[in-house]
Amino acid sequence: DIQMTQSPSTLSASVGDRVTITCRASQSISDWLAWYQQKPGKAPKLLVYKASSLEGAVPSRFSGSGSGTEFTLTISSLQPDDFATYYCQQYNTYPWTFGQGTKVDI
Amino acid sequence: EVQLLESGGGLVQPGGSLRLSCADSGFSISSSHAMAWVRQAPGKGLEWVSVISGNGAGTYYADSVKGRFTLSRDNYKSMLYMEMNSLRAEDTAIYYCAKCITVFGMVAGMDVWGLGTSVTVSS
Questions:
Q1: How far apart are CA B99 and CA B96, in angstroms?
Q2: CA angle, B122 as apex, B64 and B96 as ends, to 5°?
Q3: Do A50 and B108 count as a contact with CB atoms less than 8 A apart?
Q4: pLDDT band for position B8 (50/70/90)?
Q5: d(Cα B109, Cα A52) in Å, to the nearest integer?
Q6: Other C-beta atoms within 10 Å of B57: how many?
Q7: What percentage of chain B reaches a pLDDT higher than 70?
Q8: Cβ contact (<8 Å) for A91 and B114?
């Protein structure tokens, strides 16, 4: 199975900060990677698919990049609504696998 | 607005069975879209469970549920089902159904999610 490792596991930031979350795959997944945001008690929300394609209605402060084994999710200016847990997921090979999550808090 | 609604969760004893359903109030559960299940154990991260192709011909499962869970769909009724047998304590989780999006014919993400249904496996 492809292992997805996110770093950091927890990130403390302030409103207005630029935030970068990294996701590394144990083998190449081309660009078959998605990013999700999850708030407590809520279902995940798709932010980015195909490594860098922003899902409709997702604010432009979110961006994704990378290919192969290393990927990043960047929030250019953190907003109060962005405090949440973020997950990457690979779709290159079954079984699909998620990273362990990165919690962004104040 | 497209919405998915899961049902069928509950408390079950180890070794028991449950059938989860996912209803679609829009057009997600049609032959155009693959559908998936993702679960989240209490206080833990997300775990992909299974996916079924748009026409129902193809299914894939996580190793942790292979041979115990069976996915099916009825596109005419806009319904998705997951039969869960030989349940274990480690299957305790919130189960979400989700609609898949595709790029070049391959699933690239899950863009519509249900609210989730809780499954607890305990004696």
A1: 10
A2: 50
A3: yes
A4: very high
A5: 12
A6: 7
A7: 94
A8: no
Segment A48-77, tens digit of pLDDT: 999 999 999 999 999 999 999 999 999 999
Residue B28 clears pLDDT 80, i.e. is over it: no
- Sequence-ordered strand ranges (E) for A1-98: 4-7, 10-12, 19-25, 33-38, 45-49, 53-54, 62-67, 70-75, 85-90, 97-98
Mean pLDDT of B28-36: 79
Asked if A44 and B115 come within 8 Å (Cβ–Cβ), the reply is no
Interface test with B, best of A96, A98, A102 (most B CBs within 10 A): A96
How far apart are the C-alpha atoms of A21 and B59, rounded to whole Å? 32
Cα–Cα distance between B10 and B31 in angstroms, integer?
29
| B18, B119 contact by CB (below 8 A) | yes
